[in-house]
Write a structure and sequence with these properties.
alpha+beta; 4-stranded antiparallel β-sheet; 3-stranded antiparallel β-sheet; elongated
């Protein structure tokens, strides 16, 4: 897997997983846009009718407002999905978001204490949900991956990688071989004998 330019990889490190919110999340923006357009159209239409404005002028005013009311939430959700990316490496979880002002968050897996995922009723039916990653010393969720397809698999992948990294770090408590430490001890004794 090719690493995006916003991910910093150490030597030999590679991308394990990349993703972004599911495509269908844009339908939520469309639904919100339709509701906003209908409500705004009804309110403006009734207000203008009460003021005695002609039907032609009411149409001229409400049509652009309805189009704008539809376009804003739809475009906002589309843009959020398009600019939100996640990447998992052997050592960290990355989150990138933003258009004009880009924010990249690097969450070292060694600090991960807990991972979980949540699916509502629709998420359970359609296979999407939210993955939450908590770290040591943080209050609340440190990183939330929203509207993800198959959140259980993503959560498991992050948890497995964090556990593997913690196990590797604990097994390397004392670096070096026994012979190397004996040589260091002999050198320290020789230095001490030189001062006496």
């Amino acid at each position: 897997m090719t690493a995006p330019e916003w991910v910093t990889l150490d030597d030999g490190e590679e991308i394990i997983w990349q993703g972004q919110p599911r495509r269908r999340v844009v339908f939520q923006g469309v639904a919100a846009g339709v509701v906003a357009a209908v409500v705004l159209t009804a309110l403006v239409w009734v207000a203008l009718a009460g003021a005695g404005v002609t039907v032609g002028l009411r149409l001229a005013v409400t049509a652009p407002l309805a189009g704008l009311a539809f376009a804003v939430p739809t475009a906002a959700v589309w843009l959020w999905r398009r600019t939100t990316h996640y990447a998992l490496t052997a050592r960290a979880l990355y989150h990138r978001t933003g258009v004009l002002s880009v924010t990249v968050t690097e969450l070292p897996l060694a600090k991960v204490q807990n991972t979980s995922y949540r699916q509502g009723v629709l998420g359970t039916v359609f296979g999407h949900g939210t993955v939450t990653v908590d770290t040591a010393g943080s209050e609340g969720a440190e990183l939330t991956l929203q509207a993800m397809d198959d959140p259980g698999a993503i959560q498991q992948r992050i948890a497995d990688r964090a556990t593997r990294l913690r196990d590797e770090d604990q097994s390397d408590d004392i670096p070096g071989a026994t012979d190397q430490w004996r040589a260091v001890l002999a050198e320290v004794r020789a230095i001490r004998a030189g001062f006496e």
